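Tutorial, part two.
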Amino acid sequence: MSLPAGAVKRVTERAAFRRPLQIIVFLFGLSGIGARAQELLRLEASLDAMGTTFTVALYGEERDRLENAADAAFAEVRRLERMLSNYRPSSEWSRVNREAADHPVRVSRELFELLSACQDYSRASEGAFDITVGPLMKVWGFYRGTGRLPAREEIAAAAAKVGYGKLVLDAENQTVRFTEPGVEIDPGGIGKGYAVDRVVAILRDNGIRAALVSASGSSIYGLGAPPGEPQGWEVRIRHPKDETQTVETLRLRDQSLSTSGSYEKFFVAEGKTYSHIMDPRTGYPAAGMLSVSVLAARTLDSEAWTKPFFILGRQWAARHRPKDLRVFLCEDTAELQCAWLP
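Running the prediction step on this input gives:
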């Protein structure tokens, strides 16, 4: 069932293991209540925001606590949309895009720190991660669209406006400026991951110890573990050419998993497939990979790093990935090759 933007769908049920022809209600002994076991409830809720669908699955003892935690989490997503959306003219992000070429724009501490993190990713990835990719996303038709094949002259003109060095951050004055007109930052490579981390923080603050948080399935965080599954939440990495198949299954416990794939948004022109994952250094969509998944402690890191690994490939990732990340790659070869980096 589709939901209007901003609507919340909520389902609460008793935690249960599904078996053929039966449902077994799970009883979980909770610390601090003596020998008496309490029955856990499961709440599922979803929200359309930030150009994606956020879903949460929560476990707890009290319906009110679960519902209040979900409401608080989604209120945070709406707040972030008001700050980070490049589709809302009133957002802080949009104000930077409008004004930063004319004068330094003072921004909130939160946005400044997020932009600083983006600069760090850009430096560490040799420019493969770059939020100034906005002009390229527009000329290739991926901004509010499904893509188009632009002329070489259009690509060259857009690429000339891209480069993380054109984004200047002044920590003392907490300002952002662009070095020239036409520069535009795009939150597509970072916004969902940051929002998932914030949702997890809100749930923790509201006493939730077991939750699965997802932004359209491409950025996921497993908080704690669901009943009866001490290793964590089961998540699957889909086959990049067949959504009905799985290429890897793993468990998340206080970890995130993000996946970027050429199947997410693409178009075909002149017999060639072009994906939305843009190489900001060349001005063209990246090729050679089908999907990249990153396992990390923070969703901000897992989402951000999928793009450089997708663009730069297996060998670069093997040499340069941060030591606390695990990387699973599916390469575009004659026979599909999917594997974790050693």
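The chain is about 30% helix and 35% strand. In part three we will examine how such features are distributed along the chain.
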